[in-house]
Amino acid sequence: MTEQTQEVEQQAIEQEISTKEHSPSNLESLMHIPLEVSVELARVKLPLHSVVRIGRGTVLQMGKEADSQVDIMANGSIFARGEVVKANGKLGVRITNIVTPEERIRALS
Question: Where is composition skewed (Low complexity) in this entry (predicted)?
């Protein structure tokens, strides 16, 4: 086998792999991967002596306003923001914006 033949075969293999990686069936498989979606209302740091005194009925005051947007995360990474709503008697979140890739990177640092 000549060097040129090997090169052509290698290119054909790489093209086939690339085509398979992006085929609809592979993308369809990815769409069924389960992700944990969570909503973070707010975070607060408290000294240990305050945490030990927390009991039933204690109200933890957060740093955000009551009508502030909440962060929506998939597997711990923020991907959207929204507002808390009541939907059919249950707690829900209305998406107000999708986080840009730049914002996602900033959130990691």
Answer: 1-16
* Cα distances (Å, whole numbers) of residue 69 to 5, 50, 72, 77, 81: 60, 26, 10, 16, 6
- Per the confidence metrics, is the pTM higher than 0.90? no
- Whole-number Å distance between alpha carbons of 62 and 84: 15
Residue 78's DSSP bridge partners are 73
Q: Are strands 90-98 and 37-40 parallel, antiparallel or unpaired?
A: unpaired
Is residue 84 packed enough to be buried (19+ CB in 10 Å), middle (13-18) or exposed (0-12)? middle
Round to whole Å and give the CA distance between 106 and 99.
11
Cα Rg of the chain, angstroms: 24
Q: Residue 45 burial by CB count (10 A; 0-12/13-18/19+): exposed, middle or buried? A: exposed
